[in-house]
Structure formats: C-alpha cells, structure tokens
Amino acid sequence: MSKPKKVTPLMKQYNTIKVKYPDALLLFRVGDFYETFGEDAVKASGILNITLTARNNGGEQTELAGFPHHSLNTYLPKLVMAGCRVAICDQLEDPKMTKTIVKRGVTELVTPGVALNDDILQSKSNNFLAAVHFGASKGTKNASGNKIGVSFLDISTGEFLTSEGNAEYIDKLLQNFNPSEVLFSKQKRKLFSETFGDNFHVFHLEDWVFQKDYADETLNKQFDTISLKGFGIDHLEQGVIASGAALHYLSETQHNKLQHITKVSRIAEDEYVWMDRFTIRNLELYHSNQQNAVTLLDVIDKTISPMGGRMLKRWMALPLKNVETIKRRHEVVSYLIEETQVLDKVKTNIKRIGDLERLISKVATGKISPREVIQLKNSLEAIVPIKTLAETATNESLKIIGEQLQECEVLRDKIKETLNEESPVNILKGNAIALGFHPELDELRSIANGGKEYLNQMLARETERTGITSLKIASNNVFGYYIEVRNTHKDKVPEEWIRKQTLVNAERYITEELKEYETKILGAEEKISALEQEIFSKLVQWMLQYIGPVQQNASLIAEMDCLCSFTTQAKDANYTRPLFDESTDLEIKEGRHPVIEKQLPPDAPFISNDVMLDRENQQIIMITGPNMSGKSAILRQTALIVLLAQMGSYVPARSVRMGMVDKIFTRVGASDNISMGESTFMVEMNETASILNNISERSLVLLDEIGRGTSTYDGISIAWAISEYLHEHPSHAKVLFATHYHEINEMTETFKRIKNYNVSVKELKDDVLFLRKLVPGGSHHSFGIHVAKMAGMPQAVINRANKILKRLEKSHSSEELSDQMKKISEEEMQLSFFNLDDPLLEELRDEISEIDIDTLTPVEALMKLNEMKRMLHRNAKVKGEK
C-alpha cells in the first residue's frame, strides 16, 4: 500500500485558495515574489516570456514561474490584455509577526472588463464590461424573435448604460461599445455564440444571477433607491436584469467601493440615427479590418482630454436625430471659429486637465495616490478660467455649460493645505503631507530631520573629550548607529563604550546616548509614516462627497473638448456648416471624402462631387462607371457627410442642405462571413435584405455592386429587382446605387425617380484617365482590362483579353438582356404548337393563369420562365423518344 503524498503547507494553502478561483490565473505572493504554479505557470510563462522552472511538492514536480512583486504593474496588464482573469493573492500579515505559515487571501480579481490599472486602460477609450440577458423564449429556437437585454459598465469612469431590443440591435451596440468582457448565463453559451459570434472575451455566470428580483435588489441597494423609475429604465425588464448581473460581477471580483457608480442610463434607441453593424463596419468609423487603415475617428479626433476622446467616440457611434440639439452644437462651433482667442484659451486650459472621470473613480475605489490627488486639484483649477470664458460668451449653449461647471473651491483648498505640491506616487514613500498642516507631524519630522545636526554635535563633543581625531558615527541595518575607532586610537576609548564589532583596521562601539537617540529617530519615522497614511486616508474619505460635482465637470469639459475638436477640424480642413430644414432632401455641393482627402499628397487635390437626392424627382441615383473610378468613395463620403452633420460637426463640402436622416444603410465592399459558413453572395443578400426590411422615408441607402457575387444574369436581375423595390416602396427612401451593370441604365425609361449618373473617364490613345467626377448619364464601358493592366498583369494576358473582348462585343449587342427576355417570351408562345390536351401543359396553363403579373418582380419572372422552359423541353424530349 503506497503512502499518501505529502503536500507542503505552502502548497496546501495555495490549493485551498486556487479551488475558489478555478477560472482565474492565481498570482500567489511568496516573500518578494508573485508565484504561479502548475497550469497557471505554463500559461504565465508563455504570455510574459518568463522562465518556467519546477519545484518538489511532496515527491512530485510542480511547474513554477514568478516575478518580483514590485513588477506587478509591468506584468499584470500583459496577462489581462491576453484575456486572462487574474486573482491577486497577497500576504495578509507581516511574516515577522507569525511563527506559522503567513495568512494569504485574494485581495483583487482583475479581468479584462474590470480593470483600474492605468497600464491596462487606454486613455481615450472606455473599458466596458458588458452583460447580456436573453429574454424568455417565445417558441423560437434562436434569439431573433426575443428581446435581449444589455448593459455596459465602466468601473474606471463610473459610466453605466443599459438597453434592450432584438438581436440585430444588441449586436450593433456590442460593436459600437466594443466591451473588453461580456457576461452571460452559463446555459446560454451556444445561443450567445450563434447570435453574436466568438470574438469577445466572455465569462459565464450562474443562471440565478439573471433574475428580475435579484437585479432590482442589487441596483436599488447600489443607488440607495426604492425604485428604478427615476432612471427611466424600470420598463426595460431584460435591460435591468443585464444591469444587475454586471453589478453583481463587480462584487464577485472583490470590487466593493463603488460610490462613483451613481446612476444607470438608458441608451434611447429612438434618439439616435440607426446604423446597423454592417454600416458601422463598412464606413470604418473607428476600427478597420485592414492593417494600418485610417478611420474617420483618426481624421477628425482633435480632442485634448481623455474624457473628450471617449465622448467623441460615443457621439460618432450615436449620431443625433434631434435637429435642435444638432443646431446648438453647430452654433458653438460657429462661435468658436469667429472667437479665435476664446478657442485658444479654452484649449490651453483643457490641456492642463487630467482624466477627471478616472481620478474621481480612484477616489471612490480607494486606489488614488497623493500625486493623483494633486493632479485632480490642478485639473479643477484649470476649470476656473474655462468657466469664466464660457459664462461670458455670447453663445447660449456655452453660457449654460459655464453656469453648470463647478469650481469646487473648498475641495481645491483642502487638498492644497493637506498635501505637498510635489507629492509622491506612493503614500508609503513619505513627505506627502504639507508642512504646517499637522503640528505633531511637523514635530516628529524635526526630530527625524534634525538628527544629522545632533550627530555632528555629538561627534565634535566626543572627539574633544577622547582626543581621537578620526572618530566616525555611522549606521547599518544590523547594529543601528555606532561609533567607529581606528585601531591606532583604540587605547583612548572610554570604558563606558560597548564594543559591538571588530574589523581589520577598526573597532565599532555603541553608547547609551546613541541607543536612546536611535530609538527616538526610528520611533519618529514609524510614527511619521503611520500619521501620513492616516491623514491621507481621511482626506480621500472626505473627498467622496465631491464625486457628483467632479463627474459633472468631467462630462461638461468632455463636451467642450469635442466642440473645440470640431472647430479645429473645420478650420484646418476647410469644413462648412450644414443647414438643416424640415424637408427630406439631401443636397451636397462639392462634397469630399474626409478620410481620402487627408491621405492624398499635398499637390493632388481631392475631386469634389455634387449629390442631390429627394423623394419626389431624384430619389435613386444609379452610378455607373469602371472599377477604381471612385464610385465607392462617392457613396462612402455621402454617408460620412450626413453622419458628421448629425454628430454636430461641420462637413467637408462647399455647402450642404439636408433634412434629418433617421437611418443610414450601406452595402459597400465585400464583407465575407465565410468563417461562419456563408459565401460572399449570401452575406451580401443578408445585408441587403436587412436594409429592404427596415427602410423609412428619412433613410439614406447606399448600395455598391449588388449582385456581383453571382452570375451576370442573376446579378442584373437582382440589382434591377432591388432598385424597382426601392422605387416602388411607399417610403421613397433616398438611394445611391453604384453598379457596373450598364443594363440597369434602362430603368430610367420606366421609373421616373431613378436618374443615371456616371463617374467620368477620359479615353486616351492607349490609356484611360479616371476623372473621378460624377456627371449625368449612364456609362457603357467597364475598363476592367485597363484596371488589370494597372495592377501589373502580364502584357500577354492583357493582349489576349483585348482580343476576346472585341470578339464578344461583335457577337453580343448592348441590348442582349432584352433580346434574351424576348427569346424566352417567343419560346413561351410556342406552346400553341403542342397538344393543349397534354396533362403537363394543362398543369402549366393553370400555373400561368394564377400568376399575379402586377406583383411579379423581374427576377421572379425570369425564374418562372426558365422553369417552364425546362418543363417544355423535357416534355418534347419524352415525345421524341416515343
């Protein structure tokens, strides 16, 4: 019988703690190191690139990897950014004070969505924790028919948002807010993956967390309320449950000081322009799948403060539908463009402001340092001149901001009188509390700091008394203070001195006076440290009452920063103010693409274009033209101009007149979803179907090369049918449709609100010049071979392609499609030559008589005719065989 394996007390303690945190990587404090063991060690060594070793644990080898405890802020961010949940296990008592194993416990659980460490957080991006709750199923197997709740919580800023809706809406929000971690019920793993994909860091909570009663109790306790009605979210049952789950997770991760989370706000879907996730991705607003791609945010973000950077991203994700609010933003920009001095002074002072939201959050969570408190005070001081400038402005919106800004004078004065201006990063380093603030502290400091003078006096006195000219007073960690006498003078040493150490050339002694002095000094230093910590802790506790005013200031400064950013961009890039009216028109004169024009060389001017859309005369613009001529750029720039206008920004155009747009839909560029098992064409059709099912009279629809993922005739049929549907739909939504199917040009003869335009091209002798100018009329060439030549295709291939093209052009007229339609019709007429008593033909006749021609789309007609043709051929073949 084998003996049971012995486990060391340390590993026994480790195993007990690890069992409580099975999903986390446990950093176990041992002396001056954080150690990881077993699988954690293997994982940590790989992520951190640190040495993996092993130790003997009761006869077994256990993997081991560690790093010095003072390097935690270097290594922790790497683990969290790799998607790890990290449990930090600290020593809870001084090892000197115990004879048994040191008590240890987890003091913090850091996960991707719950981080306060500056090295993990990005200054201009929120670090959202999201929670998703799937509402009760109504007989459907997927989430599409049910309401889903979502909440977004940033512990580093105190922002807490919630909403609910269908899967498409929640998907869009998840893409907009880009959470670092998403929580959902363990039982919904498969459903979450099917609905939202596998691109998020996720964590599963027990099902009981997602209960309405528990959520209400958790939220009301946090906000000290009896009902959630005051937050305007009480009717969002799924949203409330998701919010409760997010808050629950904070307590589960040892985050219990949350006074900065003061409210939960509803993301009001009806207040913002609808953009589905395809549109957000297609327009490359703030992230791109292309490497080194420049996004719209990269171009227009001229914010100075972290709060402003985060708010600008939010404004871009949620453009406004309220025209009055949009106009107020435009008026501020207009005022700041004229008042250059005001703009410069405001920007100068915003530069002095730190991250107010995250600083006051650190106050709430008790993780702020003395230096950061000074930074908070300096930031609040920089607000005072901004408040004055805003209050004295002639612009009404700025005046309101100025009146709402809080000077926080009492808070600033309290910090100024309590702390040194040059405070340390860590309170334990000392000298944080200002001179004159605490009499006892000042007295202890004079004892500690006056020591040098006292020792010099003692040295002079003892040198004179003993006659030893080379006397030296020093100290070390073993003996404390001592007097050193060289061997040549040791016969002069007084009897009352006590020898402590013998060196090669000298002896070291201590005296009663030195010992008393040492006790006094060491006692003073310990008391100084304890007093400083106590004073600082009381200051931070007192500062909690200012969470609300500081958060309000942060929001107002962020708003001013965004408006200053719009102003700077308008001045630097020659943007103009868009004019809004009650119409549904969109009239852009000399519009430019904000991103492309920024990337052009200085000597290459951007070719601007006019776009005019309305619901009565020019509802749909068909843009034909060769590949690479700039069709897609015109589509994208139209969407971006509308988006910028409704964010409250000026726009890249000579002039813009428009009615409010409530939805922007784009189907631009290939966005394969092959990893999910769908073809390019299938994805294209899904995205287009989503557009056609959601359009309204104020929608802007931008379609690029619809149908190119299938055969030519299929593609033309689908493009034609979609255009016809959009024209006949009662909403009369505004549409830009770029296509290389020249046959679509013929639609203008039948549909009065469809107009043809083309991106002009100048044909030279052996070359083609893309003019990138939108002009009336359709294009009849694709210049695909020329594009192939530009791409570096071998000349032999180019020559052969030209020969084949000429042959095809001879054999096919430009009216090929209508000829094909005529041919099919003629074959249909040949029915009369067959015996009408044939059972198959009787069946065909019945089917034809049931067709409702008024509702039949071109593509359905083509499919129906093809089907009949096959049936007839099959029938004829059977008869021939007989």
Layout of helices and strands:
Elements: H1 9-20, E1 25-30, E2 33-37, H2 38-48, E3 53-57, E4 60-68, H3 72-81, E5 86-91, E6 104-110, E7 129-134, E8 148-154, E9 159-165, H4 167-177, E10 181-185, H5 189-196, E11 202-205, H6 212-223, H7 237-252, E12 265-266, E13 274-275, H8 277-282, H9 296-300, H10 306-317, H11 323-338, H12 340-350, H13 356-365, H14 370-391, H15 396-404, H16 409-418, H17 439-449, H18 451-466, E14 472-476, E15 480-486, E16 498-502, E17 506-510, H19 512-543, H20 547-573, E18 579-581, E19 586-591, H21 596-599, E20 609-613, E21 620-624, H22 631-647, E22 655-659, E23 663-667, H23 680-692, E24 699-704, H24 712-728, E25 734-739, E26 754-763, E27 768-776, H25 784-790, H26 795-811, H27 816-829, H28 839-850, H29 858-881
Parallel strand pairs: 1-5, 7-10, 9-12, 10-11, 13-23, 18-22, 21-25, 21-26, 23-24, 24-25
Antiparallel strand pairs: 1-2, 2-4, 3-4, 5-6, 7-8, 8-9, 14-15, 15-17, 16-17, 19-20, 19-22, 26-27
Helix pairs in contact: 6-7, 10-20, 11-20, 12-14, 12-20, 13-14, 13-20, 14-15, 14-16, 16-19, 17-19, 25-26, 27-29
Task: Describe the protein.
- The structure is a single chain.
- Among the domains are: 102 residues, MutS, DNA mismatch repair protein, domain I (3-Layer(aba) Sandwich); 137 residues, Nucleotidyltransferase, domain 5, CATH 3.30.420.110; 92 residues, MutS, DNA mismatch repair protein, Chain A, domain 3 (Orthogonal Bundle); 204 residues, Rossmann fold (3-Layer(aba) Sandwich), CATH 3.40.50; 66 residues.
- The longest helix has 32 residues.
- Helices cover 44% and strands 17% of the residues.
- With 882 residues, it is of the alpha/beta class.
- Keywords: ATP-binding, DNA damage, DNA repair, DNA-binding, Nucleotide-binding.
- GO terms for molecular function: ATP binding; ATP-dependent DNA damage sensor activity; damaged DNA binding; mismatched DNA binding.
- This is DNA mismatch repair protein MutS.
